Amino acid sequence: MRFNDLSLEPTRVTFWGASAALEIRSPLPGVLRVRHIPSPGHSSMAARELAAKHSWSVVAHAELPLSVRQDKAAGLTVVQAEGLSLEVRPEQGTWVLREPGGRELARCEGFSGETMPDYPVNRYRSRLSLHAPPDEAWLGFGEKVGTLDKRGMHFVFWNTDVVPHHPDTDPLYQSIPFSMGLRGGTAWGFFLDESWRLEVDVAAEDPTRVRWESAGPELDAYLFAGPLPADVLRRYTALTGRPPLPPLWSLGVQQSRWGYENAREIRSVIRDYRAHQLPLDCVYLDIDYMEGYKVWTWDRSRYPDPAGLAGEAAAQGVKLVTIIDPAVKAEPGYRVYDEALAGDYLVRNDRGSVLLGEVWPKPAAFPDFTREPVRTWWGQLHRAFVETGVAGFWNDMNEPACFRLINGNETFPINSAPAADLGKVEGPTLPHDARHGDRRHLEVHNVYALGMARAAYEGLRELAPERRPFLLTRAGAAGIQRYAAVWTGDNSSYWAHLELSIAMLLGLGLSGVAFSGADVPGFLGRATGEMLVRWTQLGAFYPLLRNHSAKGTPYQEPWRFGEPYLSITREWLERRYRLLPTLYTLMYEASQEGLPAMRPLVMYAPDDQEALRMDDAFLLGRELLVAPVIRQGRSHRHVYLPEGRWLPFFDLGLSAGGVREGRQHVLAEAPLRTVPMWLRAGGALALTEPALHTTSANWAHLTWHIHAAPRVEAHLYEDAGEGYGASRRTRLVGEGTADRFVLERTTEGALPSARETETLCLYALTEPKEVLGAREHRYVEDVLLVEVEAGWTRLEVRL
Ligand code: GLC
């Protein structure tokens, strides 16, 4: 690729070659957009104007100023933006990304492309190659299997319904082509804003290169400055959007099963939860609630009175969530299908007629969520369900999944569908050439679910403006965090899947998806009592905690496994509710800054290779290191503690053994009841009392667990737990010296306090001589327990 011409505008710099172009802009500080256009014929090169390009993922559209410096002798043109610069070599068509200090962050070794004339539309292959220094780690890539560092792997981005999936299955349901490079403690980000089918080879084929390939005509890349992983993530989520704060109830315990037969069974699940004194906030209704798999209907023989059921559940503090699949049964007389036909809302095949396939409904047609009128129509379809009292929606099969294709009177299994008649099909979905308005499926397949989730989210905001939407989705694309939580699809009750879920959720979190979970204790297969316990212990820290299982598998509600599993599971579900002040605050932070609740250790130890390899442990927020047991029969586990001082805080309580220095490997004792955890020096954790269900996030009882250090900082966000009313933000700042520890509390926001009791548990302080500002205090086994008045502002501990 060679460029011989340059056009300069205040916010846009474009390099032109015989048939290629490279366009540079800056939408945000520390972010550059670089459109690599290798294919002739796509844009009007002669007129020196690139075709505008639609983005499904990006929500920040500012245009910041750029400056340009040319170094003719070195053959360089340097494009300077706030926080980053790009050094382009027009002769070679390559670039180097640098920090303001001049340090090299990334290097593009070239890009190229081909257009292959084809019927009905041309096909493309566009490639871009990044240099991969041997000591660089590659994190992110959305919902992918494997270790945290994806070096040595190859991924396809093509949303796919896979049952069952395995620890090496690719692709899965989500396509988020975002990665974070990490080298020598410095992070940078790369996002390919392409909805087309993509592939990436992460230094697998060639250990010195990361190669991206798109089936589309260009490579629209965004480059993000760090220097820390959290900085990259803040910038990436400023570009693609942040997750809205979910309703508090959706952070409670969720129970689901494909196979609950009817309203009677739903009632008995709720009754049994309560009879066993188990916390529960919501129950899901899977596909069997519909009449003949017709979306937006109820099977009245199974659910004679859905509103009555919702009311009874509500009286127990339980919400209902219904599954909503995109495929619409193609049956004349069925209102949803009739409206879709009349409005021209459906995906069409290459020949122009409505595309028909089979999913749960047969035959089925597919709404085209890439078009706005279709999204508006679909959004409004939520109305009757909202009025019935359904509190949340579960979007599934939205890759979209399609098991068979129909052509006239014949149906074809996807794998043997005749391409000549039905188009090329990859995975159980629609053909590449299916029509979405004037786009083809190959271009928009990966954003189908994003459009569906957007339709639901925007519809719900309009239909119930006083409530926060709760949406759960299986498929998605970059930006899905704006609308929905994500669960990792059809896993199995394997120990390997329990372990895998950690790296998968960490990867999703590093790709902007903060609200996520995996089915506990596995969707397919047979779980054991031990697995239920170990998976619930891990799930207690998933942002989304749902027990779900497949039809035909043994039931796996907590009481199905007997004792001691039931009691231990109850203890952990209760701990989940105790953790809610912290988890809710973390979800609030996610909505403000894009950082996930579950974070890899390496996030705060970016130059520590040992921390990078720890993908079977994680941090909840910044302060709490969680090392769940992930293997059968184990009573101990190894864990690496990164830099810092760590207070053992097993099972959210003080445990034997003293504070540990970090940068060391430790062996933790973890009998079945126990999850090893440590609280970082300077960190604080806000806990409340257990409850059977959530009510408000304006906590009546609060206990702060504070690991005293020269500097302590902690935050708490509170509000009603629902809606868009008043909130209160509390900040604790502590300062410790040899002879005293002072803690100051400030608050902000209009929400009046509901506090009845507030306790501070201060760790790592020697026995105090005097405590000022407390209502009462005691020193018990190395812990200073302090009761404070609701409106306290200052505590001083003299040592
Ligand atoms: C898909 C979903 C699963 C659901 C089932 C039936 O397999 O991933 O969670 O239970 O469909 O709707």
UniProtKB/TrEMBL annotation:
Name the Pfam families on file.
Gal_mutarotas_2, Glyco_hydro_31_2nd, Glyco_hydro_31_3rd
Cite the SUPFAM superfamilies for this sequence: (Trans)glycosidases (SSF51445), Galactose mutarotase-like (SSF74650), Glycosyl hydrolase domain (SSF51011)
Among the GO molecular function terms of this UniProt record, one is:
carbohydrate binding
All copies of the Glycosyl hydrolase family 31 C-terminal domain together span 594-683
Key words, A-Z: Glycosidase, Hydrolase
Single GO biological process annotation from the record: carbohydrate metabolic process
Ranges where the Glycoside hydrolase family 31 N-terminal domain occurs = 22-201
Q: Which residues form the signal peptide?
A: none
Glycoside hydrolase family 31 TIM barrel domain spans which residues?
A: 243-586
Entry similarity comment? Belongs to the glycosyl hydrolase 31 family.
Q: What is this protein called?
A: Alpha-glucosidase
